[in-house]
Automatic annotation (TrEMBL):
Any GO MF annotation of the entry: metalloendopeptidase activity
KW Phosphoprotein (keyword) present: no
Protein name: M23ase beta-sheet core domain-containing protein
Coiled coil: none
InterPro entries (alphabetical): Cell_wall_metabolism_enzyme, Dup_hybrid_motif, M23ase_b-sheet_dom
Domain of life: Bacteria
Any matching Pfam family: Peptidase_M23
Alphabetical UniProt keywords: Signal
Residue span(s) of domain M23ase beta-sheet core: 187-283
Signal peptide: 1-23
Amino acid sequence: MKRLTALAVVLLVCMTLDSVAQAEPMDALTLRQGDVRIVKLADDAKVSDLQGVIDTGGVPSAIPMFSKGGALYGIVAVDLYQQPGEYQMTVYEAATKRALSAKALIVKQGEFEKSISPSWNAHVFTKPELERIASEKQAMAEALRTSSSQPLWQDGTIYPIEKTDHTGLITTPFGQIRMNPAQDWFRFHRGTDFQAPKGFPIRAIATGKVAHLGHDYLLEGNITVIDHGLGIFSSYLHQSSFLVKIGDEVKKGDVIGRVGSTGNSNAPHLHLALKIGGAVVDPLQFIEALRGL
Ligand SMILES: [Zn+2]
């Protein structure tokens, strides 16, 4: 007990619940929609000692935690669609469920590029197409329901497309707002697009296990979903071919498929998407944050 009391001093920059009760200003973490941030939770603790939770008004979501060099870290993720506002993160002692520390999570509006494209996605889906999209979404949601209880990404991250003179360039960033003024319609870009020709190898951004393969989905085309543990999933869209099977264990950097233009795509490229505890987040922030640890 004594050791955990000492831990609370370190947790989330020294904010204990006692001091919150004294109405002192809470130290806060400010993030934008779609952001991913690594937060040090304790200098000397095991993953099994603590539980971190973000409460945004709905079902509180668990903060994925991992150990590195004896310290304990959490991955704080803000959904692209999270309403801006002030929320709370709390760290509990796992054994007793006693709250050890709390900190405000301030979510600001994302500052995303806007692209106006009168012709983009002017296609009106038929009823059978809409039904197909719904059942494909359902199949993906099913696959994301279970995740490994271990953090599998511990050996870091890598970019999915090797950088060369003609590959690896980001053609559409995460969050870009695509607008069609004629239809009074817009949509956020829910991933990051990488330039690459058809057939170029796609690499797993981190170690994990293949959770889902979608064959020729109407929007995603051929899609591979990899479970990295603790509710973290990466998805690779529009592939021309698959190189893994469901249940395969893949290492960071393994080639899992080939670039294509299947599904809702105009030219060969890779669309990489990342979900953390159900939150749609910027994949590049995840890759960069875990490369640096
Ligand atoms: Zn895309």
